[in-house]
Amino acid sequence: MSYKILILEDNTLLLQTLEDFLSGNGYECTLVKSGKEALKQCYEHKFDLYLLDVKVPDMNGFDFLKELRAAGDRTPAIFVTSLNDQESLAKGFILGGDDYIKKPFDLEEVLLRIKALLARAKGIVDDWLSIDEAYKLNLARKRLFCNKEELDINLKDFELLYLLVKERGNVVTKEMIHERLWSSSEEINEGSIRVYINNLKKIFGKEVIVNIRGIGYRFEK
């Protein structure tokens, strides 16, 4: 299974160059040109590493990572930027960046740093939470597996499932779900919770996730 990398870069030529090079080395790349577009992708999909330019439209790379870290996302992140002053370097690490590459750079250096960071992350890649004999959650990579086969669920589905499984047998209130699934700057959508619950019921069955009317849900598998 190839690693999935989100690349945030507003220079079209550089973005395409990085994709061509990294795809050729076995990585699956998702390309975005603005911070808000990157944020949308991260809330809908799961990635193993972020490769982030800082100076991008809508929301710069620093603010983008700050938003994700506040939401509990610990995906490894590398900043790739022309900024080279010590204050900017320090800010990147304080906000949760794991590495820094200064432009201009050598593509082989990017590859080596990606490999090194993913290798360090392997220490938590096998952090599993079993649901039953068939289903398991990979907590580090935020993936759901059934008998070693990865199932396609989005990040919100995963976070909700993790919360339900962790509190198995107990009622998970709507307030607990809001706190787990949405950051302080995100707009909470009550209808979305029902969508995520229905997505999980399609996998585990309607009887497994019990609706406690007006309060929340209980996972009974």
TrEMBL record:
One of its GO terms (cellular component) is cytosol. Residues 126-221 form the OmpR/PhoB-type domain. It comes from the Bacteria. Keywords: DNA-binding, Phosphoprotein, Transcription, Transcription regulation, Two-component regulatory system. SUPFAM superfamilies: CheY-like. Residues 4-118 form the Response regulatory domain. Residues 126-221 bind DNA. PROSITE patterns: OMPR_PHOB (PS51755), RESPONSE_REGULATORY (PS50110). GO terms for molecular function: phosphorelay response regulator activity; transcription cis-regulatory region binding. GO terms for biological process: regulation of DNA-templated transcription. The modification 4-aspartylphosphate is found at D53. InterPro entries: CheY-like_superfamily, OmpR/PhoB-type_DNA-bd, Sig_transdc_resp-reg_receiver, WalR-like, WH-like_DNA-bd_sf. PANTHER family: REGULATOR OF RPOS, TWO-COMPONENT RESPONSE REGULATOR ORR33. This is Two-component response regulator. The lineage of its organism: Bacteria, Pseudomonadati, Campylobacterota, Epsilonproteobacteria, Campylobacterales.
